[in-house]
Structure formats: C-alpha cells, structure tokens
Amino acid sequence: MNTFLLEIVTPERIVFSEQVESLSVRGEEGELGILAGHVPLVTPLKVAPISVKSGNTRATLAVHGGFLEVQKDKVILLAEGAERSTDIDVERAKAARERAERRLNSQGNRDLVDHRRAELALQRAVTRINVSSHSKE
Ligand code: ATP
Fold first, then answer.
1. For a substitution probing ligand 1, which of 12, 99, 128, 133 has the most ligand atoms within 8 Å of its CB?
2. Per the database record, which ranges form the ATP synthase F1 complex delta/epsilon subunit N-terminal domain (predicted)?
3. Residue nearest to atom 7 of ligand 1 (CA)
4. Is the CB of 93 under 6 A from ligand 1?
5. Lowest mean pLDDT among 27-36, 80-89, 107-116
6. Which of 47, 58, 69 is nearest to 18 (CA)?
C-alpha cells in the first residue's frame, strides 16, 4: 500500500514524523480519512483521538484541536497540543477531568469564558483517558 509522510507538530515539539498508510481524524465538519494521493486541503480539527495505520500497526494519539493540512507530498497536523498514547499520564488526566467537572457543576460559575475553558479542559482530559485506554488493548 502507498504511504505518505505524516508530521504532527505542536508549538512545543514534533510529536510524530513517520511514513503511514492512512490517517483518520475528527474535523470540525466530521470524520475524515486520508490515504496517499488525497487532494490538498486545510481543515480545522476537534479535540479528539486520531488514528494512524502503517502495516500491521495502528497508533492512537490525542490531538487537542488545530489544523490538518494535506499537501501534495505530505500531511501536516498542526496541533495546539498532542500526545502519543504512551506519553499520557492517565492519573493526571483523571485529576484534570475531575477539576473540570467540578468547575462545570459549580452553581456560582456563570462566567461564559470560564465555562468554555472548563469544557475544553474536560474534552482534553477525556480524549487523553480514551487514547490511553486504547494503548492497553
Ligand atoms: P493539566 O490541567 O493536567 O495541566 P491541561 O489540559 O490543562 O492539563 P495542557 O495545557 O493541554 O494541559 O498541556 C500542557 C502540557 O502538558 C502539554 O505539553 C501537554 O502535552 C502536557 N500534558 C497535559 N496533560 C497531560 C497528561 N495527562 N499526560 C501527559 N502530558 C500531559
């Protein structure tokens, strides 16, 4: 099967740079599957797990929003944050999930910006927990 270079980059580091056969992401407009030779495009991404396949190996990574850019010869995923499943500290993510849930449930908190921030923190934490559970399958 044909492969393409996938680079996953955050403001902090290069998280992933490998030849892969397919990539599956959750875009703002729905699920998107990419194979070699896909038409060039740019699309915003949700906070969600992504899946990468190469030969018999399938990897799941946590991607915390950003953009996917399909170029002619490679695919760049410019993420606000991203982690490989093996780099995720699941206890930290569970603590972050609890903090975010507490903030969302607190009656006094009517500030929209705080609410949105807590929602995003919850999405990041849940994504990390889900990705981490994949790595133990
Ligand atoms: P926390 O409240 O635990 O810091 P957060 O969602 O606010 O979580 P981010 O601001 O998204 O954290 O990330 C800050 C840095 O910490 C990034 O480099 C990110 O990859 C890393 N990070 C955050 N949570 C985890 C985790 N559970 N396991 C591994 N790395 C993490």
1. 128
2. 6-82
3. 121
4. yes
5. 107-116
6. 58
Question: Which CATH class for the 4-85 domain?
Answer: mainly beta
User: Is 89's C-beta closer than 6 angstroms to any atom of ligand 1?
Assistant: yes
- CB of 92 within 6 A of ligand 1: the answer is yes
Q: Confirm or reject: Cβ of 121 under 6 Å from ligand 1.
A: yes
Which amino acid, residue 18? E
Task: Report the nearest atom of ligand 1 relative to the CA of 95.
Answer: 3
> Going by CATH, does the domain composed of 89-135 fall within 1.20.5.440?
yes
Burial class (CB in 10 A: 0-12, 13-18, 19+), 102: exposed
pLDDT-derived band of residue 41, with 50, 70 and 90 as boundaries? very high
The pLDDT value given to residue 107: 61
Task: Map out the domains of the chain as residue ranges.
Answer: 4-85, 89-135
- Kindly give the interhelix angle for 112-134 and 90-105, rounded to the nearest 10 degrees: 150
Residue 1: pLDDT over 90: no
